[in-house]
Amino acid sequence: MTTEQLTDVELAITGMTCASCANRIERKLNKLDGVTATVNYATEKAKVSYPGTVSTDELLKTVEAAGYAAALPTPPSTEVADEVPAADPLLQRLLVSAALSIPVVAMAMVPAWQFTYWQWASLVLAAPVVVWGAWPFHRAAWTNLRHGATTMDTLVSVGVLAAFGWSLWALFFGTAGEPGMTHPFRIAIDRTDGAGNIYLEAAAGVTTFILAGRWLEHRSKRQAGAALRALMELGARDVAVLRDSASGGQSEVRIPIDQLAVGDIFVVRPGEKVATDGSVESGTSAVDASMLTGESVPVEVGPGDAVVGATVNAGGRLTVRATRVGADTQLAQMARLVEDAQNGKAEVQRLADRISGVFVPIVIGLSVATLGFWLGAGSGATAAFTAAVAVLIIACPCALGLATPTALMVGTGRGAQLGILIKGPEVLESTRRVDTVVLDKTGTVTTGEMAVHEVVAADGESPDDVRRLAAALESASEHPIGRAIAAAATSEDVMVEIDPGSRSPRPQIPVVEGFASRDGLGVEGVVDGHAVVVGRPSLLADWSQHLPPALAEAVERAQGEGRTAVAVGWDGRARGVVVVGDTVKPTSAEAVRRLRELGLEPVLLTGDNESAARQVAAQVGIGTVIADVLPADKVAEVQRLQAAGKVVAMVGDGVNDAAALAQADLGLAMGTGTDVAIEASDLTLVRGDLLVAVDAIRLARRTLSTIKGNLFWAFAYNVAALPLAAAGLLNPMLAGAAMASSSVFVVTNSLRLRGFRSSI
Question: Which pTM value belongs to this model?
Fold first, then answer.
């Protein structure tokens, strides 16, 4: 038996309005023989594996038959060129509807503003909102009806049309259109024939509120592809390739990056990005991979060593032979990791949709039952229809439309004041269930910057002299470690930390003469008449300057802690060692303690070596350490924790964290990190302080609780008022007062989030 070869394709889906739409498309596609499909509502994409017996046209037609539109992926070049976004039609619809609805609601709620023909003015203003503003809900409701399903759109559409339709009947055929008609501010339970009642404010107001919620949701969904765009923008745009010239030598020719082929030899100057994955042909340098790996220690490379595209050459000139280009590079593979993690991430279905899936059929059934009861009781068609429509009107989700957006707007506004950006309401539910928090090391728990930790002087030597002469040489170097040593010599704070007992003034860095760089080894020069050598112990050994036991022990200790030891010698002797490495942020230990108080188990996840990772973990109080992991392994580690039943939050800042942030149930990105990590996350921490992550989880949980409270009271008001409507006792002012009071409660309950206090 042979297994048929499957082809993968990603379809762009349009027309989805809620998670149930994605489920419906997924079910339709999976009914095709041999097809496996997953549809992601957040990214509006369907990832489909299909056999040769099924064509892409058949896939597209299946989606269209479900009531939606699908298209094959756009070529990358077209996507990049399309940098100017079209005007947001949903925002335009919201702004116009809001401008028209405000006076309608105001006139209905304030009797003093009800002038002679106010009801007709309300009709003129409300009609465009009900027809044009609510059109997306009507269209979605019709699509759902054709497939025997009901969602929030069904409830909105039916409620809005019922309120508007009854208002039209009352205006043209009842007594509501008579000059001087008013809605007196009288709350009473009485039975009427409905001929003088209009509900235009309910029809227009509900439409506007729901549009506001949809726009907030839409704005967060548009960020789904930004991580992928940011990843690809990390790469070089063009490259200098070596070509044979007519004179027999080689010359540099600059070409676009997409013309680079495997086997081409290209040049990388100091400060330039490595164009693609390759192998060094000639030259030695330090390569800064922090943008890609998140790790601060530069990588020394020479002939035969592999380099990765998008890393930065921090030292000498390199020539590199391209080994992988285009979609085969590590950068492109990381982009696919992010995309796969986003597509495979199960989005939390909106709570309102889940409730309305049960509530809508009940309301419609109750309305039909009310109509049948009153007709059977002989009360007449007008009274029966009035009661039936009243059931639909009172069920119209005015407060429901406010429940999520108001809490989200207040919560996100307070979050922004505290340096926390919440992408959208769909991320909040994850914060309630999270039990494990995975922390990236470099840039998250630590500063991510090289700094001097210790200066060890040989017997009889002064640490100040070691520091001063080393800084003098390194001040002329472009190497990241050299810059850290030079910076430490001019920083009073660092000097006091290194040598607390010293009260000497900051040394002036002397001038260097005869400076020379030994690629990959260190630097040499003459300072104040001394022949100084700074670099690897092997460089000093070349000058017969061997480390005495105390200095050799300092080097071994530094390496055991995952730090870099730089040897310093002059005038024929090794005189000291400068230890350079990453530093733990001052608030990290406190943040870890508070994360535990929230019921979260911290895990340190890093691409750094085991000893360095455990050293940092011990300082901040983390017991579980996962070290020496590649970007793809970070995703696998998050998946492993999820497979073990853990609900995982991930905190990171580097490009290498992006896929893991997208894979995690909750992704938190440090705002001091890369755009890729930020776009792949659910929550962004503007400040690079881990305590802000504690505040983010607390605020998100508080906001979610507020939304759930709002939803409860929004539906409670419906449940309490429905029996009155079914009994034919629904007075228009009673309905208006009930809607207003529930809305006021939702708003005031949401405003309580403004009192949220920071942990910092």
Answer: 0.58
